[in-house]
Amino acid sequence: MKLSTKITTASLVLFFGAALGFAAPVSENWENLCTKCHGADGKGLTKVGKKLQLKDYTDAKVQAEMKDEDIFKTISDGVTDKAGKEKMKAYKAELSADEIKDLAAYVRKFKA
Ligand code: HEC
Questions:
Q1: Where are the domains of the chain?
Q2: Fewer CB within 10 Å: N-end or C-end of the chain?
Q3: What are the distances in angstroms from CA 17 to CA 23, 85, 88, 94?
Q4: What single string gives the DSSP state of each residue in 25-84?
Q5: Could you tell me the distance, in angstroms and rounded to a whole number, from the CA of residue 19 to the centre of ligand 1?
């Protein structure tokens, strides 16, 4: 009796732990993977961001020019310059489609 209660408790802890830990929250992904270039505020005014001449995602005009499918595609496949040199990494190997979707929505929220 006692043993089975312990087992049930342990599996509940495991279950909820896994459910919570399954996908990193979007703000954490943005913070860990994207702010180095795009900045925590999405303005792209970091050292690297300035060099890469990143767009300002708080700018309504910039937001209007971006299509949802392009945002998703850029995060999945990355960005290369004309010479094929990588400017932004492809994230589809480390992020799930849902995480990329969440990040795309997160980018939209920077609009002032
Ligand atoms: C090494 C620097 C770097 C990192 C890190 C980076 N990006 Fe980018 N990103 C770029 C460059 C360069 C461009 C292309 C220039 C531009 O659009 O401003 C770009 C473009 C974009 C675009 C514009 C797509 C469009 O249609 O115009 C989005 C959205 C974006 N990045 C999101 C992200 C997200 C989300 C992350 C984190 C998962 C991320 N970026 C990480 C450099 C980076």
A1: 24-108
A2: N
A3: 11, 40, 32, 20
A4: -HHHHIIIIIHHHH-TTSS--SHHHHHTT---TT-HHHHHH--HHHHHHHHHH-EE-TT-
A5: 29
Give the up-direction half-sphere exposure of residue 46: CA atoms within 13 A in the CB hemisphere: 13
Q: Which atom of ligand 1 is nearest to the CA of 30?
A: 37
The 10s digit of each residue's pLDDT in 61-74 is 999 999 999 999 99
Q: Which long-range contacts (CB under 8 A, 24 or more apart) does 70-76 make?
A: 71/104, 71/107, 71/108, 72/100, 72/101, 72/104, 75/100, 75/103, 75/104, 76/100
| pTM score, whole prediction | 0.84
The yes-or-no verdict on residue 20 having pLDDT over 70 is no
Give 79's strand partners: 88
CATH class for the region spanning 24-108:
mainly alpha
